[in-house]
Design brief:
Chain lengths: ~200, ~375
């Protein structure tokens, strides 16, 4: 190592040290450089489109099961029955938020836009079971029984209505022809199907 | 101390019947207690300031939970250290393991004895002051090596070996960089060195501005001393990322606390020596402190000295959070190939300067030009 290199080394050491110290001094003096967020007291502003916990507006939900099918980790499960008005009625809608990976596919695919990401990100639980979010408070079996009852009542009403209508028809048209009614067998079939 | 005891006995008639040695002993204990309290307070507050400075430099906040703005953090740390379980590893050398922290702490604390805090504020104005500091702080090497060896842990041993190699190598540049101040004052006593920088030249009376060689000498001393106290650019003995925490890995509780305190104590000693030898010590610019009443003169000089020393400590912390750690070979190269030759050249230059210009510095010569 020649003398020139030796002196160059010393000069470089001094210059680079001074440079580094100028940078740290700027950070040390400028209070605006602090980036720490005092979390429990301060919170960051949630950006638009933030994918937090999932929330399903069960009143809007049509129980189409699209979300269940699209979920890559199978964290959504739902049960539904067909109600008296031919629409599906939710019996239970559970999301295992501990398993969810927040990909947002279920929200994107939801036809009535009832499933949404909230801005929530804080949750702690002592047991894994507590991480399953139940969106329908009532027991699934009870809902099923109630819907079955409603369906049965509706079917009975329909049958009665059909009967009276038929009776009226037969009374009206007895003279014309003794035709077998078309509606009755169908209604009976449906009656058998629904309580399942 | 005996002289002080004699004057105290003369001043206070109550002490007339007490033997001289008893009063002297009492005074020694009192002085030691005062210095210990100062050292511990400095070490506590120093640790807090260190963390705050680190926070500021790294764009974070630093401790802010204990007390307003975190100013009581050091008390919490101290209480925690005292209350923690004192663990001694099963296969450690128990005697040496217990002994090591005391060596380190005593080595750092004993150096406080000759720190010239003010005109009359010095525990013992030894006529070999600087030599004593150099000698007594070398005790730290023994303690660190003992700690590394007695822990029976490979990281601790590596840290201890590195510390020994490092402190021994950097002892030379530190000593050589301090000698210019000794040459100018013509005395090893720290009080004499400080007094030699006084006078009516103000800050230009400082050794720092005496001549170009002393100017470089100050920076060489500061760099080498930073290494000797294992501060961060040279903190190889405790290199967290490679040696976990070096020689003190196996220590916990109050024993670890002693190592910790010694580290901050060393920091202050380095700053105090730099202040005393190059920055004019307790000298108030353009003003003779000795002419004031004893109390005010001492208070003023103490304030000036501490302000300078704490500024130096702050700069050490600043360096500490700026530079990345060196490799072992780089560290050794820096000491033996750069600092040692440079300090020798400096020493030669200062000696020649003093010989040629009859002991006068540049500011002194300029002042004499204008009468």
């Amino acid at each position: 190592m020649g003398l020139k290199e030796y002196m160059n080394d010393i000069v470089e050491a001094v210059v680079t040290t001074a440079k580094g110290m100028r940078i740290t001094a700027r950070y040390g003096v400028d209070p605006k450089e602090e980036v720490t967020l005092q979390y429990p007291e301060e919170r960051w502003e949630i950006p638009e489109g933030y994918r937090g916990f999932l929330h399903n507006d069960v009143k809007k939900c049509t129980a189409c099961t699209m979300c269940v099918k699209v979920c890559p980790v199978d964290c959504i499960s739902l049960e539904s029955v067909r109600g008296a008005d031919k629409k599906m009625v939710l019996a239970s809608y559970d999301i295992n938020i501990g398993r969810c990976m927040y990909c947002g596919l279920c929200v994107e695919v939801c036809p009535p836009k009832s499933l949404k990401h909230t801005s929530g990100y804080e949750m702690a639980s002592a047991a894994r079971g507590e991480l399953i979010l139940h969106f329908i408070a009532e027991d699934a079996a009870e809902i099923k029984a109630r819907v079955a009852r409603q369906v049965a009542e509706a079917a009975a009403k329909a049958a009665e209505a059909a009967k009276t209508a038929e009776a009226a028809k037969t009374a009206d048209l007895s003279a014309v022809a003794a035709k077998p009614p078309v509606v009755e067998p169908k209604a009976a079939k449906e009656e058998e199907k629904k309580p399942e | 101390m005996e002289a002080a005891a004699l004057s105290l006995m003369n001043a206070v008639p109550l002490l007339a019947g007490v033997p001289l040695w008893a009063v002297t002993l009492l005074l020694i204990v009192a002085a030691a207690a005062v210095i210990l309290v100062f050292a511990l307070t400095f070490e506590g507050v120093g640790s807090l300031v260190l963390r705050k400075v680190a926070g500021d430099i790294q764009a974070r906040i630093g401790p802010n939970r204990v007390g307003p703005n975190g100013i009581l953090q050091f008390l919490a740390d101290g209480v925690k250290l005292v209350l923690k379980e004192d663990i001694i590893p099963a296969n450690a050398d128990r005697l040496l393991f217990k002994l090591a922290p005391y060596f380190v702490f005593v080595g750092s604390f004993a150096a406080f004895v000759v720190v010239p805090f003010g005109v009359g504020l010095i525990a013992a104005d030894l006529n070999i002051g600087i030599y004593y500091v150099m000698a007594v702080t070398s005790l730290v090497v023994i303690g660190v090596l003992l700690a590394g060896w007695a822990s029976n842990n490979k990281w601790a041993l590596l840290g201890g070996m590195r510390a020994a190699a490092q402190i021994v190598s950097y002892e030379i540049p530190v000593g050589m960089a301090l000698i210019p101040a000794v040459l100018i004052a013509g005395s090893l006593s720290l009080q004499d060195i400080v007094r030699s920088q006084g006078g009516l030249l103000g800050i230009f009376g400082w050794n720092l501005f005496h001549n170009p060689f002393t100017f470089f000498s100050f920076f060489l001393y500061f760099t080498a001393a930073q290494a000797e106290t294992n501060q961060t650019p040279f903190d190889l003995p405790e290199a967290e990322s490679e040696l976990v925490s070096g020689y003190n890995v196996e220590y916990s509780g109050i024993r670890f606390g002693l190592f910790f305190l010694a580290e901050f104590g060393d920091m202050f000693i380095v700053a105090a020596l730099a202040t005393a030898c190059f920055l004019g010590g307790w000298n108030v610019p353009f003003f003779h402190v000795g002419t004031l009443p004893w109390i005010w003169g001492n208070l003023l000089s103490l304030g000036v000295f501490l302000a300078k020393a704490f500024t130096m400590v702050l700069i050490m912390m600043w360096v500490r959070w700026t530079l990345p750690r060196l490799r072992v070979d780089q560290l050794m190269r820096m000491s033996w190939k750069y600092l040692v030759p440079l300090t020798f050249v400096n020493l030669l230059g200062v000696s020649l300067w003093l010989l040629v210009f009859k002991g006068k510095g540049i500011p002194g010569m300029i002042a004499s030009l204008f009468g």
